[in-house]
Model the fold of this input.
Amino acid sequence: MRIRLPLLALAAAIALPSLAIAQDKPGKTDDKSAVAKGHEQDKEDDAQAGWVKPPVMEQTSVTHHVATTHAGPMKYTATAGTLTIRDDDAKPIASVFYVAYTADGVKDYKRRPVTFFYNGGPGSSTLWLHMGSFAPERVQTASPEYIKPAPYAFGPNPETLLDKTDMVFVDAIGTGYSRALGDKKDKDFWGVDQDADGFARAIMRYVTKNARWQSPKVIFGESYGTTRTGALTYLLQDRGMALNGAVILSSILNYGIRQPGFDQIYINYLPSFAATAWYHHKLANPPADVATVVEQAKQWASGPYAAALAQGSALDPQTRAQIAQQMAALTGLSPQFILDANLRVDLARFQKELLRDQRLTVGRYDSRYTGIDADAAGERPEYDASDTAISGAFIASFNDYVQRELNYRTDMPYRVSAYGLDGFKWDWTHDAPGGGRGKQAAPDVAVDISAAMRTNPYLHLLSLNGYYDMATPFFGTEYDLHHMGLESAQAQNIAFRYYPSGHMAYLNPDALRMMHRDLAAWYDEIVASASSNTPPVTPAMSRGHAEGNGPN
Done:
């Protein structure tokens, strides 16, 4: 999902109207003539070659606006443009597209954080976070719903984080308007370490270009973007940029757990199954709220269920039957179905089976959504209902917004995703810090986060999770972060938050309000820590597990 896990990516292109230069509104920038001159040279080159090339010279379109925020009306500057990243010999290797929102009138940048946002995939642009979460304007959504065709509701976002941080939304190379330059090809950046290197260079370039080295710095990733964040926490620090914080939304940190033969994946999914069954009224004795059923499922999954799975084929028939009955009570599935699945129900089977009696499937990215398959007797859903429900609104809204309001125009197509392009193949190997362990065949970036937090005691990590996200189950995130080998003083810098939503938790307006509240309190801690240079101890935040339980 926008967010994009590797098997579900949207390969779409948006062709924007063809005005070749990024135009500023009156009085917006001092370097317009330089941009124009450089772009005219690009146009000559393009005309000779017969196609549009990404610009080597950095471009910007600067516009000014007023945002509605929790702190009241705020004047801000929106900058849509490109960053040229270079190799260690200063040779240009990629043009990276970004949109930045910065508050006007800031006098002390040492107390004004800057946050870098990106989606995942791998191979997704950052269209989804940009259009749906914390920017000053967003697609207006209700959750869960199928958004009707155009015209779409797009407008002011009172939950924008502009009241707490400047924001920079960055597209991965090969997506959006980001492209490789020179001898490099987009595919050269399609891998765990290659991608992290490109983002590290882009972030450092933005910070240098805009003189933000003294500002508190935060990175914010969603889905595979959390894998990227894990790698970046250590990589940026290793290159001289120690982060103040990292936010991971709908996380997948360890891909190795998805290999056949490991039972932990079934344990991780159990609480998400229970939350979904509760939502769809499939439990015989449901508790009053989803947080309660989730806690019950977590205790059972990590206790009796884990012990039973650990015995494998040695599990006796009586215990097997008891486990099936207990699992049925928590998941809404029949004991016989669970026994037939050898107590190990994979996600696709759960999606198809839970509401089979109603001829419905449940969504993967958000299990509150339901779909209708042509074949109700099939084993797996024919499509993900939660994926198809919102894509059109996000793509169309960006297409209109980037042209009309940001005034950024180019002949290049905007790639919503690189997945499905000719030659798209992700390199999953990863050189994790630590030495002596060899290259990982499947990335486990919890190792990177652990190394970063052990060497930077001021680094805060905030984990945001949706109860109904079955693409990246929240119990798996807990497991990974609780197994990083941190001392208690370091572990106290990790906080968890949970919301009544799915993978794109911000689609639910109630969840978005909760997220803003929790993030606002977290950013206040970041700024306070940066000012005092004292590692904060916040046990209430780090131990919080209830829905939306951050400070008001």
Observations:
- The radius of gyration is 23 Å.
- Residues 1-37, 537-552 have pLDDT under 50 and may be disordered.
- Residues 151 and 280 are 31 Å apart (CA to CA).
- The first helix runs from residue 32 to 49.
